[in-house]
Design goal:
Helix content: 40-55%
Structural class: alpha+beta
Mean pLDDT: 85
Radius of gyration: 25 Å
Order of helices and strands: HEEHHHE
Shape: flat
Number of helices: 4
Distance between the termini: 23 Å
Number of domains: 2
Low-confidence stretches: none
Oligomer: single chain
C-alpha cells in the first residue's frame, strides 16, 4: 500500500486536514474489512487442508496459523467460590486480586476444596494467530 505523505499539521488548516483525515480513515476502514474477510478465508483454508502449526510458502509469502489452547477465567463463578471459602482477595468493586490469590495459593493458605472449585472456573478455548511474512528475495 502506498504511503501518503502528509504535511505537518501546523502548516495545514483544519479545512484541509479534516477532509483528508476523513478520506484516509474511510479507506483504512474499508481495507480493515477486506483484510478481516481474507484472514477468515485463509484460516478456513488452512484448517480444511489440516496445515495448522506448519509453515506454508506460496507466491513469495510464508504463512503460519498457530493454534494454541487458551483458558479464560469465569470471574463471576470464581467470585462466588472465593466468597464461600472466605478467601480475602476480592476488592471494593468486586474484582479479584490475582497477585494476592497467587500468593495465598503458593503459601498453602487456600483449602484443597476451594482449589478444586476454582479450577472449574476456567473456560477452555483455542486461540488462532495467523502470521504472514514476505520472503526475502535472494
Amino acid at each position: 500500500m502506498a504511503r501518503v505523505k502528509i504535511q505537518e499539521p501546523q502548516t495545514q488548516p483544519l479545512e484541509e486536514l479534516i477532509p483528508l483525515y476523513g478520506e484516509q480513515n474511510t479507506q483504512c476502514n474499508a481495507l480493515k474489512k477486506v483484510v478481516a474477510d481474507l484472514n477468515t478465508k485463509v484460516k478456513a483454508a488452512i484448517h480444511a487442508a489440516k496445515q495448522e502449526n506448519k509453515d506454508i510458502t506460496v507466491g513469495g509469502w510464508k504463512c503460519t496459523l498457530t493454534v494454541t489452547d487458551d483458558t479464560k477465567v469465569n470471574e463471576d463463578r470464581l467470585l462466588d467460590v472465593l466468597k464461600r471459602h472466605k478467601i480475602a482477595v476480592i476488592k471494593t468493586k468486586e474484582y479479584i486480586d490475582f497477585d494476592e490469590l497467587e500468593r495465598l495459593i503458593y503459601a498453602g493458605s487456600v483449602p484443597q476444596e476451594a482449589m478444586l472449585e476454582m479450577d472449574a472456573c476456567n473456560e477452555k478455548g483455542t486461540k488462532e494467530t495467523l502470521r504472514c511474512t514476505k520472503l526475502k528475495e535472494a
